[in-house]
Amino acid sequence: MRPAAVTPEVRRPSAVRALTTLLALTAAATVAVELLNWWYAPEQEFGLAVRTGWAMLRSLGFLVLIGQVNRGRTGAKPFGLILAVTTVFAVGRLVVPRQGVPPLPGLLGFAVLTALCVGIVVLLYRSDAVAGHLVRHRKGLVVEGGTISWREVAPRRPLVTGWLLTSRVAAFTYSPLTLVPALVAGGAVLDGRLAAVPAVLLWFLAGIAVSYLALFCTAFLLRGRSWARRLLVAITLGVLAVNLPLCWWLLGVDGLVRDGGPLLAAATLALYGLHRTPPPTPTP
């Protein structure tokens, strides 16, 4: 009786291994830079604590992205692009203090983090080896021939471009990018601005509502519905129309730059992704 042949383990391309190393280094650098910013901040206020906590949570996003890359998932590219761009904005807004010159360690850490994020985007979108690796879809239960198996399931929806996936992932960031400044504004309310309580509550509820709107809209967007494209544009413009004035009113120019900048970057990527995606062909 011959033993079963052992399937040799396929070694991942060097570009994929370099990408996972960069992701791990970026996750660690995100935490290190945020701790540096907190250490050198002249005032450890509530708003800084909220923004620092949110930026540090992004390190978990890079760890999730490592798992997506190791599994070869197609959604790793847009996820990595959005995560890298918004991380640079989220960390950059905390490096510059309200007054004075940024500390040198914070600037150096931000420069290193920016270089790591640029390297991630370059590998995701410019490496043929990485592109050939990120081709798998999620696994699911498949019933075929009277047997049930757990294997990769190709989506039944029409072929989705990378830019359309980028728009989808960007839309998912609208909710947290709305909730973070709303929480920061809640600290301003506790400092005595009780007249702003209704605005802060509506702002917080809007951040929750936009998450459901984005989920509903992008589900039909990936299925090639033309009305979903128009709805996503309307959601994007509505989010900007609500958040930017509230940031300026409740958080001042500093809050407009720190919290409006990352949101504006995500909205730009979402709209640009729609622009790069051809409109769906009408079904006869």
What can you see in these coordinates?
- There is one protein chain.
- This protein is mainly alpha-helical.
- It folds into two domains: 12-154, no CATH class; 156-284.
- It contains nine helices and two strands.
- The chain has helices at 14-40, 46-70, 76-95, 104-126, 128-133, 162-172, 174-190, 197-221, 226-276, and strands spanning 139-144, 147-152.
- A two-stranded antiparallel sheet has the order 1-2.
- A hairpin with a 2-residue loop joins β1 and β2.
- α3 (76-95) runs antiparallel to α4 (104-126) and α7 (174-190) crosses α9.
- The radius of gyration is 21 Å and the shape is globular.
In short:
The chain has 284 residues and is mainly alpha-helical. It has nine helices and two strands, in the order αααααββαααα.
Keywords:
284 residues; 2 domains; two-stranded antiparallel sheet; 9 helices; globular
